[in-house]
Structures are given as structure tokens and as C-alpha cells.
């Protein structure tokens, strides 16, 4: 939503809509422990509402979700009023925003330097535990921050929560960087301990497994499982749920004076509460930031889920001075892990035409940052993908970007529709040439079948000259587009007939660059059969299949004459691929192009051909390898080729059928997968010996 251009009236309507929606999801999340949308989606709604209220402060109402924490407590539990409100935390996603927070702390406190603590932000639910003369008398949830639920009987079932403090016995810090534990022999008359009830990852999985067996609903994540377990009306159910606890603060305290957050943690530890071993204290802010960043890398190693790290001003006297903004105290800030999802607007759907004439719808998005990368486009795959999700132009959509994969549009948020969104269908004609498009029986894709379609030609040329194909330096997408536009190319073979005069007609070429291009074109003539086959762009003939063919056949002419049955005999080539090859060479325009390539002097000879009589022994026959990480001695392509030459198969992902995983430097997730499945691994040194000595080198 473009807030900049909203009128007051539109903004009011919008804010109303957002509030209703947020209240609904708050209820699902905080009261029912059954969220329907991801946190990223929820945060996006909140952020939009915040932005509107910022631009139109007159629209800010006291009951706006931006002004409140959580949700009102459930009806069934007795209510508890928090004498000191339980607040939320301001969250940021960038280091610079933590710096800004620190600078504001300095400004508001009038100090030059302020100590901070850094603590993991545990993803569970906040709980308040009241101890009177050392005895647990009340356990309460946060609720809406001022009113929570009395869940005392349930809290009593959590083994890590002491019923009486100080806990008997010797106190031991886990390591020297933890806060010092003072000697405490007696409980204060009153102390309200605050902390997080959470569920460990393994306990969560076990619980869900049990739920499934019993045919009961499973939980979306450990946080919801923890919340759902603690907020059971029957505490016998809670008792069977594996809940854990970390203490991180205090509310009301009588009889002891605690001056810093670090002392609070030490004191709580001394009383016998579990405190997180990764909490640290810093007098140097930059060092705190560095620690936080390093710690955040360890997310996966932890037994429990964390959603970030919390910075707190150490000096408790300053907490009061700094005050609260809305529902978030200024003394703390949470640096959260970058989300892998965001909500943005689907501005348009544009269709591109691929090299085979395939029409692909692409999402044009209002640019949005996901995990540190700005995303403005995403693939929509095909018409069905759009229709199944009912994506409409103008919709708010959830976009996911995980790792390096192409961003995906996950789904729309229909609740946010204004009525102006437009449903989309695949156009009936090709956006490039205007000819009608067709969808072959049983396929999800539409094709432009016009052989003269300029968009297809551009793609075919792009592919032909690309690195893995004929590798013509200085010839990229832009050049492909220009040459086709000027009518200089009618098929990729025309590249070999370009004259210097023609090249000079193209914008961006001068005397010298034209000569260079001609030299590059000349050099590409000897790339060999495998690359040429790949360059032709035959459906299902990728670089792997092209290499397989080039090992079996001496020249392109042999392949052109090979019947489908013969092609299918080749290990790694299925009937679909074989049929596609035969069909491609049966087309007149394709045969003409081959003849043009021949006349131009492009080599049809295989560089990989292995004559049957000189075929190597196949010592690794029957074994399947997968490679992960970087190898130092050779590229992955080469490793693959050498393994295959010895008769082994090389697969791209680990499965039960994998014989060995070859592990290079910085291995990826395949290593974990292999460990899970019990697939043996070998290192690079063993791999090299394997190439020399064969099977004997294997463990
Ligand atoms: N998916 C949904 O439908 C939905 C609905 C509502 C809220 N949410 C999610 O809930 C979150 C908002 O909840 P929130 O208000 O509890 O804020 P929050 O979870 O971002 O932060 C505040 C909480 O952090 C916890 N915490 C953990 N470790 C801590 C530590 N060391 N020191 C202090 N506090 C610590 C406390 O429980 C505290 O109450 C957002 O992430 C939002 O996306 C999701
Ligand atoms: Zn077309």
C-alpha cells in the first residue's frame, strides 16, 4: 500500500481494516496459540499500521494494536494485574538500528558511555513468577501487558521453575563469562521473577509425534507448543508437556537492592533459577555488537529456538529515565534474525517467452527487503500456479526468499483486498509476436509455436552464445537483442555469417570491438560436439545429456542418424529425451541451420568420444556419489566427469541410494542429510586416491 498518496479518509479506512485483522491474528496467536499466518506476515501488517499512524497521528487510537502488548487474557483463567507492566521489545533487523538505539540511549541519558548486556531472545512466552518469603505463590502470563492469566498450577509442573528459593545445594556457574553469583542464604520477602517458558526443539518434535499418534492436533512451532501447554485449563496436561525455563529479569522486589541487569542475572542464578549461559556484559558497545553478531551465527546449534538477541542497558536506574515508547521500553532493543518472508504488493504480472517458446508469468513486486536483499521480481512458474493461489494484480502477497533460490510468491492476503485487484489469465496471444499461444495436452505450460517469434529467437541466440554453450565472448543478452532487432540473425547459425560492416551497425560496437567479436565467433567453431549439442537448445538436452551423447558418438551426423531406440540404449538417456532429439532433427528449419553451421566450418567432432573397443574398465560401476562443498584439486564438473569415466554415477542430491558423499570445503546441507541417512562420507584426499586406486581406496 502506498501510504504516501493516501487521503485521510482512505487512511482511516485502511487503518480500521488493519486493526481488525491484527486483532483477529492476535487472538489466534495469543489466546488460541494457533496462528494462521507467519510472524513475517503479521509484522508486515503491524508495520503498515504503524506507518499509517505515523503519517496521520490523528488516526492513532488508544486501543490500536500498536499501543498494546499481546492480547487480553482468556476468560477461563483468573485474572492477574501486573503491578509493573510486562512490556514487549522494540525489534530491529539491522546492526545500524541497534547503533541508533544506543545513540538515543546516550542522548536521553546524557552520558558518554553506557554498559549493556546482550542476551539471547528465547522464542517462548513470558511468565511472571511471584515468590513470597521464598515460596512460589503466583505464576502469571503476560496477557495484554497489564492483565495476565493466573496459571499457577501449571507453572508448578515446570521442573526448571523452583517452588521454593533459594534452591538447596551448591551453586555452580557453567563458565567464567556468566554473571558472578553472590552468596544468597535467604529469600527476599517478595520477588517477582520474569523469564521465558519455552520448549526445546527435540521436546517439541517428540510432543508433536505423540500428538500425531493420539490423533490430536500438532503445534506449528515450539513457541506455540509452549504457550499452548502452559495455558491448559487442566494442569495434568501441562505436567505431561516438556517445558523449560530461563529467568531474565525481575518485576517487584522487596528486601534486596539490585542495581544492574548483570547483577539481576547473577542474583537469579544464585537463587537457583536457570539463566542463559550465553548472556554477556559489555562496557564497550562495539564489542557487544560484535558478540551479538557472532552469536547469531550459532542459531542452528542451540537446543532451543531463538528469534534474535536482546540488548539491554545494564544500569537499572536508567530504565526509568529512558521510559517507554508505546508498548516498548527504550532501555532494550531486540536485534532479530532476518526474516525469509515479507509482504509486498504484486504490481503486475508480465509474461516472458523462453527459448522453446514457453510462456512464463513473472511477478513485478513493489521492491521489498528480505534477509538483506531487495526483491522486486519473482517467478510465478505458470498459469496454474497463479490460479491455484488466486493471485490478483494489486494484491498484498507473501514473498519468500530462502538461501539463494529465486524468490517465490507464496500466497496473497485476501483480507487486505480493496476490491480494485484484478484477476489474471495467461494472454491468448504471445506478448512478443502476437501469434496465438497453445497449451499442449497434459502440460502446465503455454507455448508460442511461431518459429519466427523474435522473443524466442533472442532467447535461442542468448543460449547459443552462453558460457556453457559456444561461449562467444562479447556476445550477451543485449547483443542478442540488438542483432535480432536489426534483422541480422534469423537463427543462431547466422552468427557465423556476420560481417564486420553488419556488426558496426550495432550500437556500442567500434572498429576494435567488432574485430574482437569476429575473433570470438571464429574461436567458438571448435568447441566440440558436446557444447554444440547443448547450444542447439534441444528440449531435455542439457549439458549432462550433451556430454553423454558426445561420449557415444563421433560426430553430430551420427546422432542425427541415430534412431530413437538406439539413443535410449545410452545410460542416462530416457525415452522422452531420445524422442525429443529425434523430433528436433526432423524439422526442416533445424536441418537447414545444421547445414549452415557445417558450411561455416563449425566443428561437429566429439572431443569426448570413447570408441567401444577402447572403452575403459569401469571399476566404480554400481556406485553413486554426491559431491558437496568446494574441491581444491578440480572443479565439480571435472570431478563428475572423472567419476563417470570410471563407471560411477554422480547424483545431485543425497538419498538412501547414495553410496558415498564426497565432502569438500564448506560443505552444504547435503552433509547433514547424509548423516541423517547414515550415508558414509569421504574427504578430498580419499576421493583423489579413489580416482587412482579404485575401490580399494574406499573406507
Ligand atoms: N503469527 C501471528 O499471527 C502473530 C500474532 C501476534 C504476534 N506474533 C508475533 O509475536 C511477536 C510479538 O510478540 P511480543 O510482543 O511478545 O514481542 P517479542 O516476542 O518480539 O518480544 C518480547 C518478548 O521477548 C521475550 N524474551 C525472550 N528472551 C528475552 C530476554 N532475554 N529478555 C527480555 N525478553 C525476552 C519475552 O517473552 C518478551 O515478552 C512478533 O514476532 C509477532 O510476529 C505473531
Ligand atoms: Zn511469440
Automatic annotation (TrEMBL):
Binding site for NAD(+): 39-43, 88-89, 119, 142, 196, 312, 336
Keyword NAD set for record: yes
Active site: 121
Keywords attached to this entry: DNA damage, DNA repair, DNA replication, Ligase, Magnesium, Manganese, Metal-binding, NAD, Zinc
EC numbers on record: 6.5.1.2
A GO term, aspect molecular function: DNA binding
InterPro entries the UniProt entry points to: BRCT_dom, BRCT_dom_sf, DisA/LigA_HHH, DNA_ligase, DNA_ligase_AS, DNAligase_adenylation, DNAligase_N, Hlx-hairpin-Hlx_DNA-bd_motif
Role this protein plays: DNA ligase that catalyzes the formation of phosphodiester linkages between 5'-phosphoryl and 3'-hydroxyl groups in double-stranded DNA using NAD as a coenzyme and as the energy source for the reaction. It is essential for DNA replication and repair of damaged DNA.
Name of the protein in question: DNA ligase
Name of the coding gene: ligA
Amino acid at each position: 500500500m502506498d501510504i504516501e498518496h493516501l487521503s485521510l479518509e482512505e487512511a482511516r479506512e485502511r487503518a480500521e481494516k488493519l486493526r481488525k485483522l491484527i486483532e483477529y491474528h492476535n487472538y489466534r496467536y495469543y489466546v488460541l496459540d494457533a496462528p494462521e499466518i507467519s510472524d513475517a506476515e503479521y509484522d508486515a501488517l503491524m508495520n503498515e499500521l504503524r506507518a499509517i499512524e505515523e503519517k496521520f497521528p490523528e488516526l492513532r487510537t488508544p486501543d490500536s494494536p500498536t499501543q498494546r502488548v499481546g492480547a487480553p487474557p482468556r476468560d477461563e483463567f483468573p485474572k492477574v494485574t501486573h503491578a509493573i507492566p510486562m512490556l514487549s521489545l522494540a525489534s530491529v533487523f539491522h546492526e545500524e538500528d541497534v547503533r541508533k538505539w544506543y545513540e538515543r540511549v546516550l542522548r536521553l541519558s546524557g552520558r558518554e558511555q553506557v554498559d549493556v548486556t546482550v542476551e539471547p531472545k528465547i522464542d517462548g512466552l513470558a511468565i511472571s513468577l511471584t515468590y513470597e518469603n521464598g515460596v512460589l505463590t503466583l505464576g502469571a502470563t503476560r496477557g495484554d501487558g497489564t492483565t495476565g492469566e493466573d496459571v499457577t498450577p501449571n507453572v508448578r509442573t515446570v521442573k526448571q521453575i523452583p517452588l521454593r528459593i533459594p534452591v538447596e545445594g551448591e551453586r555452580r556457574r557453567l563458565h567464567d563469562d556468566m554473571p558472578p553469583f553472590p552468596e544468597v542464604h535467604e529469600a527476599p520477602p517478595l520477588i517477582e521473577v520474569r523469564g521465558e517458558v519455552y520448549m526445546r526443539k527435540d521436546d517439541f518434535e517428540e510432543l508433536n509425534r505423540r500428538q500425531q499418534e493420539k490423533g490430536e492436533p500438532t503445534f506449528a512451532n515450539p513457541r506455540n507448543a509452549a504457550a499452548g501447554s502452559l495455558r491448559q485449563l487442566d494442569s495434568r496436561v501441562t505436567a505431561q508437556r516438556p517445558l523449560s525455563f530461563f529467568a531474565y529479569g525481575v518485576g517487584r522486589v522487596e528486601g534486596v537492592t539490585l542495581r544492574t541487569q548483570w547483577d539481576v542475572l547473577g542474583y537469579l542464578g544464585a537463587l537457583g533459577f536457570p539463566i542463559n549461559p550465553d548472556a554477556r556484559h559489555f562496557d564497550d558497545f562495539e564489542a557487544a555488537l560484535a558478540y551479538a553478531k557472532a552469536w547469531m551465527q550459532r542459531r542452528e546449534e542451540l537446543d532451543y529456538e531463538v528469534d534474535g538477541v536482546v540488548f539491554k542497558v545494564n544500569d537499572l536506574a536508567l530504565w526509568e529515565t529512558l521510559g517507554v515508547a508505546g508498548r516498548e521500553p527504550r532501555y532494550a532493543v531486540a536485534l532479530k534474525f532476518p526474516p525469509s518472508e515479507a509482504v509486498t504488493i504484486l504490481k503486475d504480472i508480465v509474461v516472458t517467452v523462453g527459448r522453446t517458446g514457453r510462456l512464463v508469468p513473472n511477478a513485478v513486486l513493489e521492491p521489498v527487503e528480505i534477509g538483506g536483499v531487495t526483491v522486486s521480481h519473482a517467478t510465478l512458474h505458470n498459469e496454474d500456479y497463479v490460479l491455484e493461489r488466486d493471485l490478483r494484480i494489486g494484491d498484498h502477497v507473501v514473498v519468500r526468499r530462502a538461501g539463494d533460490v529465486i524468490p517465490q510468491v507464496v500466497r496473497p492476503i485476501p483480507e487486505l483486498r480493496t476490491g480494485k485487484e484484478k484477476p489474471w489469465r495467461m494472454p491468448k496471444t504471445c506478448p512478443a509476436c502476437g501469434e496465438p499461444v497453445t497449451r499442449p495436452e497434459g502440460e502446465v505450460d503455454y507455448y508460442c509455436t511461431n518459429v519466427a517469434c523474435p522473443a524466442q529467437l533472442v532467447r535461442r541466440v542468448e543460449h547459443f552464445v552462453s558460457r556453457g554453450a559456444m561461449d562467444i565472448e562479447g556476445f550477451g543478452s543485449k547483443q542478442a537483442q540488438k542483432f535480432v532487432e536489426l534483422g541480422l540473425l534469423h537463427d543462431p547459425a547466422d552468427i557465423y555469417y556476420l560481417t564486420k560492416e553488419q556488426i558496426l551497425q550495432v550500437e556500442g560496437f567500434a572498429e576494435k570491438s567488432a574485430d574482437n567479436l569476429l575473433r570470438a565467433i571464429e574461436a567458438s567453431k571448435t568447441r566440440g560436439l558436446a557444447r554444440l549439442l547443448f547450444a542447439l537448445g534441444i528440449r531435455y538436452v542439457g549439458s549432462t545429456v550433451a556430454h553423454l551423447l558426445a561420449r557415444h558418438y563421433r560426430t553430430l551426423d551420427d546422432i542425427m542418424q541415430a534412431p530413437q531406440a538406439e539413443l535410449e540404449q545410452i545410460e542416462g538417456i530416457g525415452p522422452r529425451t531420445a524422442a525429443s532429439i529425434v523430433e528436433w532433427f526432423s524439422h526442416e528449419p533445424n536441418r537447414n541451420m545444421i547445414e549452415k553451421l557445417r558450411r561455416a566450418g563449425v566443428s561437429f567432432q566429439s572431443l569426448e568420444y570413447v570408441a567401444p573397443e577402447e572403452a575403459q574398465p569401469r571399476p566404480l560401476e554400481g556406485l553413486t556419489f554426491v559431491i558437496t562443498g568446494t574441491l581444491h584439486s578440480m572443479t565439480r564438473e571435472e570431478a563428475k566427469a572423472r567419476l563417470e569415466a570410471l563407471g560411477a554415477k554422480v547424483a545431485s542430491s543425497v538419498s538412501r541410494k547414495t553410496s558415498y558423499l564426497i565432502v569438500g570445503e564448506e560443505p552444504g546441507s547435503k552433509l547433514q542429510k547424509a548423516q541423517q541417512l547414515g550415508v558414509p562420507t569421504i574427504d578430498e584426499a580419499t576421493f583423489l586416491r579413489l580416482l587412482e586406486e579404485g575401490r580399494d581406496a574406499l573406507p
